[in-house]
Amino acid sequence: MVEEAKVLLLGSGFSMFGMRAKIALAEKGIKYEYMEEDLTNKSPLLQEMNPIHKKIPVLIHDGRPICESLIIVEYIDMVWHNNYPLLPSDSYHKAQARFWADFVDQKVYNASRRVWISEGDEQEVAKKDFLQSLKQLEWFLGDKPYFGGDTFGFVDVALIPFYCWFYTYETFGNFKVEEVCPKLISWAKRCMQKESVSETLADGNDVYESVLDYKKKFISN
Ligand SMILES: N[C@@H](CCC(=O)N[C@@H](CS)C(=O)NCC(=O)O)C(=O)O
């Protein structure tokens, strides 16, 4: 009997990047071990497996590390390609999916972090940037049920973990995403009907509490 290669995921708490890897593994039905990292006291394994950035997530497949969440999701899609493809096979649509997943990292993540970290004028700019990036995503979504079209795909995996952070952004920024991007919220609720998503995403209140705690500990006013 051929032994299956061991899959280990290094992740941490409410990281949206770690959630991407978990959702992709769940979509593919891959059995894996999970190791929670304390990012204030990184394990020797994390430092050895991601010596460049020393960040989670890291997927360790048969002893070999794969770093960066979008690269991990793409790797999972390539290695376990027989079930539930996440990236389209068509080259143009594949390029489009990569573009929008990168947009989530460059625009959505960047602005979302500034919404809860900053205050005053800086926060107002962050709110504007964040909502604008969501509106642009909503434009790309159009009337499709998922970013991947009729099926849940790469861009959906890239963006949906942010949904459990919406309560945090909304509470710090005093706005409601649904008032600006109702279609995006319908999309998020549709994704939540998938077990891979609902079982991975954290509770919005728990995320908020952890952010409050983080700010108290690490960001002095
Ligand atoms: N671009 C990376 C971002 C990963 C990332 O920022 N991970 C954070 C947790 S959310 C981390 O490990 N931070 C530890 C550090 O910065 O030292 C990805 O997509 O995987």
TrEMBL record:
Protein family (similarity comment): Belongs to the GST superfamily.
Molecular function terms from GO: glutathione transferase activity
Domain GST C-terminal: 90-218
Enzyme class: transferase
Keyword terms, alphabetized: Transferase
The enzyme's E.C. designation: 2.5.1.18
Protein name, UniProt field: glutathione transferase
Native source species: Flemingia macrophylla
PANTHER family in the cross-refs: GLUTATHIONE S-TRANSFERASE, GST, SUPERFAMILY, GST DOMAIN CONTAINING, S-TRANSFERASE TAU, PUTATIVE-RELATED
Domain of life: Eukaryota
Domain (GST N-terminal) ranges: 5-84
Methyltransferase among keywords: no
Reactions catalysed, as given in the entry: RX + glutathione = an S-substituted glutathione + a halide anion + H(+)
